[in-house]
Amino acid sequence: MKKILLSIFTTIICVNSYSQNANDSTAIIRLLEKESSTWRSGDVKAHADCWAIKPYSRILVSTGDGTALDIDPNMVLNPPAGMMGNGGVAVNSNYKMNISGSNAWVSHNEESTAADGKKTYSYEMRILEKINGEWKLVGQSIHIYKPK
Fold first, then answer.
1. At 79, phi and psi to the nearest 5?
2. What pTM was estimated for this model as a whole?
3. Cβ atoms of residues 17 and 89 within 8 Å
4. Tens digit of pLDDT for each residue in 51-107?
5. DSSP class of residue 63?
């Protein structure tokens, strides 16, 4: 009887754990898709809502020419005029994530198409925290590359 109960208990824990991660993965992907689209549309308020800036937040960007930029995270909350996109679309793919309680890191590829049709490709790492039941970005690293 103990073995049966232990087996049932273990199965319930595994199912609940998977269900939580599946729900969290879906919520995280929705957040990252929103963050990408609001940046391009120039929706400052909706974009800022994707973030929770912390004292340890960091945004690092490697450009296609090898320049490394350390961006002030507060700029995503109050970007200077002209910094955000003015149209275009982004398509994220190849999501890989690790969710551990209220912390997660996610990597993905992004193909951005500006309003004028110019394409930019990047590998991105995102760091997230679940705050008051909602996933928020707290940091990211973006690496621009030229496809072969």
1. -70, 145
2. 0.82
3. no
4. 999 999 999 999 989 999 999 999 988 888 877 777 889 999 999 999 999 999 999
5. -
Task: Find out whether 91 and 110 touch, Cβ atoms under 8 Å.
Answer: yes
Token reading at 63: 């450009």
20 — pLDDT class (breaks 50, 70, 90): low
Span of 4-8, 22-26, 36-40, 44-48 with lowest mean pLDDT: 4-8
Q: Is the dihedral of CA 67, 54, 27, 20 positive or negative?
A: positive
Helix (H, G, I), strand (E, B) or coil at 49: coil
Task: Dig out the tokens for 40 from the structure.
Answer: 């391009």
Question: How far apart (Å, rounded) are the C-alpha atoms in residues 75 and 123?
Answer: 21
Per the CB < 8 A criterion, the answer to whether 79 and 97 are in contact is no
Burial of 79-90, coded b for 16+ CB within 10 Å and e otherwise, reads beeeebbeebeb
H or E stretch including 45? helix 44-48
| Strand arrangement of the beta sheet that strand 119-131 belongs to | 68-71, 58-62, 134-145, 119-131, 103-113, 89-100
Q: How many residues are listed for the chain in this entry?
A: 148
Query: In this model, does residue 14 exceed pLDDT 80?
Result: no
